Amino acid sequence: MASLHPGITGRAGLEPLAVSPRQACVLLNVGLTRLYELLGSGELESYLDGRSRRITMRSIRRRIKRLLKDSGAEPARKTRAEFELNDQK
Questions:
Q1: Phi and psi for 81 in degrees, rounded to 5?
Q2: For the chain, what are the domain ranges?
Q3: What's the rounded Cα separation, in Å, for the pair 37 and 82?
Q4: Is the pLDDT of residue 88 over 60?
Q5: What's the pLDDT score for residue 62?
Q6: Which of helix, strand or coil describes residue 52?
Q7: Which of 74, 53, 64, 6 is nearest to 30 (CA)?
Q8: The dihedral of CA 46, 27, 88, 11: what is its sign?
Q9: pLDDT digits (tens, 9 = 90+) for 21-56
Q10: C-alpha distances in angstroms, 42 versus 29, 53, 57, 60?
Q11: pLDDT for 13
């Protein structure tokens, strides 16, 4: 599966399970203040890895899906990799 944004993983074809706050800002097109508001409200999930905060890609995807649903837009068709991922759960 291709990376969602160039430079986030540094490796072609790999997608991280969690990203830094700055990377999450790039993916969501929001500032750090808005990102921490989303974290505080529980809309995004995060954890600390030592002193580094990491935001899960699952929660970023859920937010985007929720925004698409609220706007009435249809999410993009699932890729084969996403179908395979769902089958493994």
A1: -65, -40
A2: 18-88
A3: 29
A4: no
A5: 96
A6: strand
A7: 64
A8: negative
A9: 999 999 999 999 999 999 999 999 999 999 999 999
A10: 18, 15, 14, 12
A11: 72
Q: What is the pLDDT of residue 7?
A: 60
87, two tokens = 């089958």
DSSP, collapsed to helix, strand or coil, labels residue 48 as strand
Give the closest residue to 26 by CA, choosing from 48, 57, 52: 57
3-class state of residue 18 by DSSP: strand
pTM more than 0.85: no
Length of the chain, in residues: 89
Are 17 and 23 contacting, i.e. CB atoms less than 8 angstroms apart? no
Asked if 61 and 70 count as a contact pair (C-beta separation under 8 A), the reply is no
- What per-residue confidence (pLDDT) applies to 14? 80
Return the amino acid letter for 70.
D
What type of residue is 73? A
